[in-house]
Amino acid sequence: MFTNIHVNPSPSSAMATFEGIDLNNQAYQAKLRGDFPEAERLYLSAIDVKERHLGPNAITTALSQNALGEVYLQMGKMEEAEDNLTKALAVRSAGGPPFDAAVTRENLAQLAEMKGQMSQAKALRLRGAPNTIVCANSYCISKALSLGALKHCSNCKSVYYCSEACQGIDWRSRHKNYCPSPAL
């Protein structure tokens, strides 16, 4: 028989949690404004606070690392994106909700696409099969889906979508820049 044991967090870890949340929220707002250098600065501060007080393997630390990785993708800083996303995936795969790990895998898959590594991108996405793959459209609000419920890019067959609408959005905003040319 298991017993739930509730431990009250120390005042310093509780304050760090609130400070980290506040920094994340500010960083997210900067990201929405397109101020990526400011978002980067704020996410780095959030990670520093969380690592010092909650540890590098805390789920909330991984959340900030994933968000920073997304900012680095938008900034074209591929090495920094890969470093943060890899750290986030290790934590999220070990103990977070499966959806969170799927989001980070998708981010790493998009990084692989940017590098022209389509087979690696597909393999990263398929690590969530059969039931934990997310739509490649970053603006999609769907949950993790099963492989059978998803559509794929008819050209590279490496990217998965929940609908034709999401595929069209992602094609115009991102994927067309990385998808190999169709064979003629």
UniProtKB/TrEMBL annotation:
Keywords: Metal-binding, TPR repeat, Zinc, Zinc-finger
Superkingdom of origin organism: Eukaryota
Molecular-function annotations in GO: zinc ion binding
UniProt-listed InterPro entries: TPR-like_helical_dom_sf (IPR011990), TPR_rpt (IPR019734), Znf_MYND (IPR002893)
SMART domains, alphabetized: TPR
TPR repeats: 62-95
Alphabetized Pfam families for the sequence: TPR_12 (PF13424), zf-MYND (PF01753)
All residue ranges annotated as the MYND-type domain in the record: 137-179
Name this polypeptide is given: MYND-type domain-containing protein
Organism the protein comes from: Pleurotus eryngii (Boletus of the steppes)
Biological classification of the source: Eukaryota, Fungi, Dikarya, Basidiomycota, Agaricomycotina
